Fold:
Amino acid sequence: MNAIILCGGLSTRLGEITKEIPKVLLKIGDKTVFEWQIEKIKKMGIDKVVLAAGHLAEVLKKEIGDEYNAVKVIYAIEDKKLGTGGAIKNALNYVPEKDKASIILNGDILTTVDFNDLKKHLKKNSDGIILGAKVEDASNYGTLNYDKNYLLKSFKEKEGINKIGFINGGVYLFNPEIKKYFPNEENFSLEYDVFPKIKKLFVYESDKNWIDIGVPKRLEWAKENYQKFNE
Structure:
């Protein structure tokens, strides 16, 4: 199995915080987001990870190097804006096992979800799995619409209503066949240009601890409550 971490975004919502350091290198407790994520990837028996890097890629390479904790680090450098879908399309060119499934992580999430259990739920004849993370207040997120068999039907846009919901948790497990849904363009969105076309993408529903640190308020919460993510 392959592993990809998406860490090439501009992180505009964090302002000055990420002007000189990418989100994946922000410290949460005594570890960076990258270190939190790589520990979970390593537990899956994966010894190579592709970093989809654009903005501040040189900082990443300097801080992480070509290997971390016995995991080889491969850089898929983006020399232009590719969007979330384009970044994945580009990174898949660098994975060592192109005929195997790939776990893909947004570079700004922490979770206690067991990735090995996620892997067990991957159906061979499916396009893949998306993490459905339960949040107490889904007002600032789009939510997932899926049937009783956990087959994803659509994404609901942000409703601005304070209620419990299952959202896109920023963790994907894609079979190689996912590439047939990618457009020919280099720059495209995973959410808007790929997901609507996919026929067999299943939701892994989870109420485990989860946070994305993409805005200052959630970043501060994660720093204050990082113990919740120790497994």
Remarks:
- The chain has one domain: 2-229.
